[in-house]
Amino acid sequence: MRPRVRFEGVIYGQIVATAVVVALSEDSALDARAVLLWLVVTMLVFWLAHAYADVIAAQLGRDTPSLAVQVGHSMRREWPIAQAAGVPGVALVLGWAGLLSNETAINLAIALGVMQLALWGFAISRSKRLTLLGTLAVTGVSSAFGLALVGLKVLVH
Q1: CA 155, CA 153: separation in Å to the nearest integer?
Q2: Whose CA is closest to 123, among 133, 114, 112, 135?
Q3: Taking phi first (over 0 means left), then psi (-120 to 50 degrees means alpha), and beta for anything else, what does residue 129 get?
């Protein structure tokens, strides 16, 4: 049996990852390597914070598994938050390696984050077998978060 994709974690993680890259892109002193480092650190902190909150919530419930079992379960359950940095991170690695300019790598990381939000919205709508209108709505709302971040970047810049 295939494990269920945790869409909420992946969408949340993608919004956070894209927001981190957008925010850091405004600091001209940061190159692609520095943005990648801060992206990875931020996503790991958010992953651990969510896993911790999940463990605490579970331990407050009745008939919970042992703490060690719950920690492992929660860390696996919340991992999609950290994974969301993967695709934008590839663009930043290309910048770090000198295959793309810093500006191109950072802008590509942002664009990939927005595209992933759209694709996750589409995947959610397809998994729920929504109509065309429903698919457009869910994909549009998911994309809107990324586009709002791009809009904020344009306004600040």
Answers
A1: 5
A2: 135
A3: left
